[in-house]
Write a structure and sequence with these properties.
This protein is an alpha/beta fold and about 270 residues long. The chain has helices at about 5-20, 25-30, 65-85, 100-110, 140-150, 165-195, 230-240, 240-260; strands at about 40-45, 85-90, 115-120, 130-135, 200-210, 220-225. The chain has a 6-stranded mixed β-sheet, with helices on both faces. Helix 1 crosses helix 6 and helix 6 crosses helix 8 (about 240-260). It starts with a helix and ends in a 6-residue tail after the last helix. Mean pLDDT is about 85; it is low at about 15-25 and about 150-160.
Length: about 270
């Protein structure tokens, strides 16, 4: 169940408090277990592209986006695991193609607390890092174009809910999606703040667009453009391990800040 049972029960309880919708039978069905330390939250990192899909090709050296994103994800995993605050899973550990919907499904099957997709795209005249959250109405034409280019799948999958009436299910789904959007926005703000201390940023750094990999209804998700391989300066920087380490350190600080401020992220 991607959206943890504890959080579902908490939402049902809030519904019951607000409008008398909670079922006594549901409350009685809660499992009784000895107290134990919850597992560390799982952060899923998604290195964009791979295999037959190289992504953007660098303007000057011809480096492939799929190579940059995998190297950056591996460095970010190292730093996050070193913090001791979370577990980390990569959607791909090597140069293979994984459809966009499967990347989302990997995170949902593992009940991830966060999903972070890493990219280094192309856009005329653009330079600097930026962070995207989901919105069907893109904040600008460049964001819309990036989302259209990235999306070759558009399927989010449904929530796995306990058996409830359609009315309660609609309310619960709405609450889950609202919580997910709020979590995504909060993570984006923290990531932007941390990145701004380290690397050049694209103006209006927190942007929104309809990227398919951000469409999990129950996992706060962001897409990080670490820079643009269409810009020779960004390309040169992203090819350097020291620069990727700085980007990873900034994102790690943002993730740790999010986890520290979000008790429910532990599931």
């Amino acid at each position: 169940m991607p959206f943890s049972r504890r959080r579902l029960y908490a939402l049902f309880a809030s519904l019951g408090t607000a409008g008398g919708l909670a079922s006594p039978a549901l409350a009685q069905s809660r499992p009784t277990r000895p107290a134990r330390r919850p597992p560390l939250p799982l952060v899923v990192l998604d290195p964009g592209h791979g295999g037959r899909d190289p992504g953007t090709i660098g303007a000057r050296t011809g480096v492939h986006e799929k190579v940059i994103t995998l190297a950056a994800a591996q460095e970010l995993r190292r730093q996050l695991e070193g913090s001791g605050r979370c577990r980390v899973l990569l959607t791909r550990n090597r140069d293979i193609f994984i459809p966009l919907d499967e990347r989302v499904a990997i995170a949902r099957r593992r009940q991830a607390a966060l999903f972070i997709s890493l990219h280094a795209d192309s856009a005329p005249g653009a330079r600097g890092a930026s962070v995207y959250t989901l919105n069907g109405n893109a904040t600008d034409a460049m964001s819309a174009a990036l989302a259209r280019r990235e999306n070759n799948a558009d399927r989010a999958g449904g929530l796995n809910l306990p058996p409830v009436s359609p009315e309660v299910a609609r309310i619960l789904i709405s609450l889950v999606q609202a919580e997910t959007r709020e979590g995504s926005d909060r993570l984006a703000r923290m990531a932007v703040t941390s990145l701004g201390e380290t690397v050049p940023l694209l103006p209006n750094t927190h942007r929104q667009a309809g990227f398919a990999v951000l469409k999990a209804p129950d996992i706060p998700s962001v897409l990080v453009e670490m820079g643009f391989l269409s810009d020779p300066r960004d390309e040169a920087a992203l090819r350097r391990p020291d620069h990727r380490a700085r980007v990873a350190a900034a994102l790690s600080r943002g993730v740790q800040a999010y986890l520290a401020a979000t008790p429910t992220a532990t599931g």
